[in-house]
Amino acid sequence: MREDYLILNDLVKIFGGARESVVAVDHVSLQVREGELVTLLGPSGCGKTTTLRMIAGFEFPTSGDIHLDGERMNNVPPNRRPTTMVFQNYALFPHMSVAQNIAYGLKIHRVAGRQIKERVEEVMRLVGLKGMGGRPPAQLSGGQQQRVSLARSLIMEPKVLLLDEPLSNLDAKLRESTRIEIRKLQRRVGITSVYVTHDQEEAMTLSDRVVIMNEGRIQQIGTPSEIYSHPANRFVADFIGKANFLDARIAAVDSPTGLTLDVYGTDLKVSAATESLAEGMNVIVVVRPESVALESKPAGGLTGVIQESVYLGSETVYEVQLEDRLITVKVPNPEEHTLFAVDQEVAVLLKEKSLHILPAEEPAG
Amino acid sequence: MNVSTRRTREIIASMRIIWKEPLLLVAILAIFYFLILFVAFPIFQVFRYSLVVDKQFDPSNYVAVFSARYYYQPFLNSILLGTITATTGSIMGFGFAYALTRTALPLKGFFRQTITFPIISPPFVVALSAILLFGRAGSLAPILQRIIGEYSIYGLGGLVFVETIAYGPTAFLVLYGVLQAIDPALEEASMDLGASRARVFTTVTLPLAVPGIASAWLLVFIQSMADFGNPMIISGDFRVLSVQAFLQITGMYDLSRGATLAVLLFIPTTVAFFLQKYWVSRKSYVTVTGKPTAATIKRLEWYIKVPVYTLCIVFTAMVFLLYGTIIYGSFQKLWGVDRTLTLNNYVQMFRVGKDYIIDSLSLSTLATPLTGLLGMFIAFLVVRKRFIGRGVMEFTSMLTFAVPGTVVGIGYILAFNQRSALFPFILTGTGWIIVLLLIFRNMPVGIRSGIAALQQIDPAIEEASTDLGADSSTTFRRVTLPMIAPAFFSGLAFGFVKAMTAISAVIFVVSGKWNLITVAILGFVDNSQYAPAAAMSLLLIVIVMISLGIIQLVVNRIGQGVRTTTIIG
What is the pTM of this model? Predict the structure, then answer.
């Protein structure tokens, strides 16, 4: 397994002319391992699709380099690149049957007829489209069209498979099952993949690593759990899952990996790399809704008042007024707990292990 | 309950609703009467005159036509001309559409404006200009002669050249819409799978555009077959149906022979129209929504750029040359002989043609709003109301679009030069016959833009109005009309342009008392007075452009920003 199978080196893409220009991709660097599935995740306009399209060759970088399997790709047109793309709206050729769609790339590459037939059948079996080769794509359901698109790309055995929000046109149920299928298929084939999405749940379930982008810049690269438990900044924390942000002051630096925080007058022990931190600094504490426990009897510590309560079956979500902040709290298995009423005063217990701190004034972006 | 009884019940139920709104019922009946009288009846008359001799069915006209080369040659010529022009026009239109949707051609707006310009100019202006440039005394004739040898601009070659410039833009507009509607992701997908630009074109772009190309081809074929002005000026010995039918009637007063030729013109054009409307458009893979997709324009190979850009530049230059010649020619003392600049042509043009100009302006001004209102109302009925005969109404109202002007013109003479059970007045020789002809000939444009506009409006908005107590006419007036106003005014713009530049049909119904500017121009050309003809053509173009400008201002004021040019064609 090569660590540097696909390399994006300081990629910049500027759209528009001299008068009006937009920096779509702003100094993006990334290394993708062979066989890995990396997701580019971010809100719309964050540059993730542009980055993908530069890998495919549809856009040419303003500066920076793309290397694939040791070869510089910058000036290679898309038809000569060993990458294939699954398009957001599938882009199936409406004037060709399913089998013709899938066979298209092999035909372009002048593969022998019999071989094409064999491979088309094999790929169709792989994605579960057996027996549908003769149909026009318009007669297929959205999920089936999606699979044709996937098959059409996979049959080329590309060095990198590119997926541009492939599930966004499917309904919620189908999206979930297809997501799992894509992941299984990708593992089985072992194909290096770059996947673009704006859906964080999709990114979390699919990826080996997630690249979070905003305004053309990479915010953080990491495994799903790294990103969730140790967000690099406020944007990442807010974008991945729900997060409450509390202002705090460092009361004491206890050790290289532990410190004491003063949160609204209550001391909390938190583990963090304290290298760049010092006593008296202001920080932001990232508190996930599920990292908070509520108890009915205020016993010193933090207290809050329930403002809103939403019963969701598997959990109850509360909005709690904590000093000057309104925080969201998720309590699982509501049947095992007492339910709190609106306006009730409660003790707010922050689970110290799952707290994460960020510098109070972070650089813009 | 089986299907037919259910349908019967539905129809009865919808009739009941209409009964409750007598105003709507009266309007529907009135429109049917008008459509029968001014659309169907004239065409029926043309067939009747060709088939009935001395009150008896008699195919002798057809036998005569097909046994004399003098008569059937024009038929073959027209088909030949239509076929060649449709092919050259489609190629040109496709080249332009490809350049404007798929390449990084600079100044796209400029190219687009220039190529569509012939649509708003009188159709025969191109022929006039071609004579000035390449005719016997043409200023470029010696140069052209040196290149291609002895030639005559009069005949098939000249006609194809002129009609390609005049009707290629129609093909362009159709194909521009089609190419714009092809999802660029399809071409990207093809490229992504390894296809070169040329393979992308042959395996994806072209196959997807084929129905659009067929559509464009058929439309240009129809326009070329039906063209009267250009062949009248430039066909020479190459006789075509539209001109021959005209000469039979106005030159030899042979109504039944003229009607027979008109039928021969009617059949291929109508067949082409229905092929286009009901067969080709159904084969289409792309739906033209008018929503432009951002085509990905990336590095293009030279073998695509060079021919496509050359085509664009050559044709654009040609349009400038042809219309520039009209301007230049209108100020010259005697074209090809005396190049002194003068205003004499304008003086002469006004002296001879003042009445023509006034008639043209007043009749078109009267016809245009009526065309627009009627078109809109029919569009409203067809899209929003359910009643027996709805399909027939749509069909009949679109019919005048398919039928060549020559056929309609002959039909109007035959239908309204005597009293009939349908209509107890003689219209021939009056201004009314011209106004009515203009209204019913241009109405399909109003209907089309109305249908397009209405289909974009959620019926729920109108249902809300009905729900709050308004009846059909109030809803139409207070809710529908304001929303479709931009389309309405764009329809008006085109209606006015068509009315001012019409020739093929109206030439049959003009009279000493009421005459039109286009007929006057043809008269000048007939007398070889090319300079006054150019002056008058220029005046006509200026009038048309000013009125388009005014209507565009109105549309912008209304706020939807629909460009008149997008409705045209």
Answer: 0.82
